[in-house]
Write a structure and sequence with these properties.
This protein is mainly α. Helices cover about 85% and strands about 0% of the residues. The protein is built from 2 helices and no strands. Helix 1 packs antiparallel against helix 2. The longest helix has 28 residues. The protein is elongated.
């Protein structure tokens, strides 16, 4: 369903913005460098999620023709 796929892309994009905001807040707060992997891992998971949602949306749109 296109609507649920659109919603998935929107939510994943919102979480991507939140991840970058969290990273910026951590840098500003002086979080130790040993904790950088957590932010990197969260960012990687969100990017993969967004990628999969975009692929799903493209697949749905391609099959609707």
């Amino acid at each position: 369903d296109v609507c649920s796929s659109d919603l998935g892309v929107a939510v994943a994009s919102f979480f991507l913005v939140l991840d970058f905001d969290q990273i910026q807040r951590g840098v500003n707060a002086g979080v130790p460098n040993q904790e950088a992997w957590r932010a990197g891992f969260g960012l990687m998971v969100t990017i993969i999620w967004l990628y999969l949602e975009v692929l799903r949306l493209l697949s749905i749109l391609r099959n609707d023709r």
